[in-house]
Amino acid sequence: MKLDATDLRYVSSEEFRVLTAVEMGSKNHEVVPTSLIAQISGLRNGGVNKLLGSLAKRNLVSKVQNSRYDGYRLTYGGYDYLAMRALSKRDSMHSVGNQIGVGKESDIYVVADAEQKELVLKLHRLGRVSFRAIKEKRDYLGKRKSASWMYMSRLAAQKEWAFMKVLHEHNFPVPRPVDQARHTILMEFIDAYPLRQIADVPSPGSLYSELMDIIVRFAQAGLIHGDFNEFNILIRRESGEPVVIDFPQMVSTSHANAEWYFNRDVECIRRFFKRRFRYESSLYPRFTSSAAASDDPEKPNFKLDVVVAASGFSNKEMHALEEVRTSQISARAPSNDVLTLSSIWTW
Ligand code: ADP
Ligand code: MG
Q: Among 108, 178, 233, 292, whose CB has the most other CB atoms within 10 angstroms?
């Protein structure tokens, strides 16, 4: 989806009030009745209809004709707008540039702050993949699904933000986190190529050790990246140093499947180095010895549940996020999600 910065500037303050009312109404309505939007926004019915019409034309809300009543739903475009407006009100970002990435579960844009300094805006789009799969089969989540996916995207952004902050504070090679709003994260722009695009490195052996060291440092701190591969490792253009990104799936070393996740991260790197650089080493980290070091009082030990709790969401939400992710990875039609998503339907 294209983000149009010019369009954003032309949302009037009344339209913004209406948009915010739709978002607020979504907390307990799958489709927000027009009368409720009027009530929350404190505008007269006639006026609201006109404003809703112009918001719908720009794809910020969509009209839903229900059997019982007519109403509106916030679209991803509207949610993007609200997040960017919050970031720009706080002076964190000023303008939107080009899209540089379309992930499975995110859109990545280069944006700028007021001093024209480039930053990266990551907009989470959780559920995009399985959302389509579900839609083809049957309407599992009914009218509730789009808002639920927005809610899950916000959780993913909050989780990613919490990790990026704690990792950055402990000098892990990750982008500097700048700000977070709704389903988005604003961070430092890394002038780099993803490892995936790199054909040659001066010394594959030393890059290999650097990456394995990062995996071990994570484990010593009680964490496993969980998606440590050539797409999520950026190589700085100038120095050749690696920077790790993409944290919403991080797991604790005390997770029931921790060893499996750890080995998968290690294996991804071994496999990639063998294929791409013809580099193989008999040295690679093992879970037991790496995670055991987390008992060392000198080493930082983040304890994933503590980090997550500090960022303000509960274990229930954490599990819901994990369940959605697991069901997406296994590409099953996630029948369990119906329960999960509706049971956490509170903001
Ligand atoms: P996803 O969760 O969709 O995989 P990522 O966080 O991995 O999203 O980002 C997708 C792509 O966007 C990356 O592979 C990288 O090319 C680019 N990217 C993400 N963050 C940054 C950043 N801080 N600086 C530069 N490029 C980035
Ligand atoms: Mg990624």
A: 233
Q: Sketch out the chain's domains with CATH numbers.
A: 5-74 (1.10.10.10), 78-189 (3.30.200.20), 192-313 (1.10.510.10)
Percent of the chain with pLDDT over 70: 79
CB 99 within 8 Å of CB 5: no
Residue type, 108: I
Helix (H) / strand (E) containing 47? helix 45-57
What are the tens digits of pLDDT across the range 45-104? Answer: 779 999 999 999 999 999 998 778 889 999 989 999 999 999 999 999 999 988 998 877
163 residue type, one letter: F
Q: Which of 93, 104, 105, 122 to mutate to test the pocket of ligand 1 (most atoms within 8 A of CB)?
A: 122
By DSSP bridging, strand 177-181 and strand 118-124 are unpaired
Q: Which atom of ligand 1 is nearest to the CA of 101?
A: 12
DSSP state of 81: H
| 46 burial level (CB within 10 Å; 0-12, 13-18, 19+) | exposed
| CB 212, CB 218: distance < 8 Å | no
- Per-residue pLDDT for 133 more than 60? no
Beta bridge partners of 244: 233
Assess whether the C-beta atom of 194 lies below 6 angstroms from ligand 1: yes
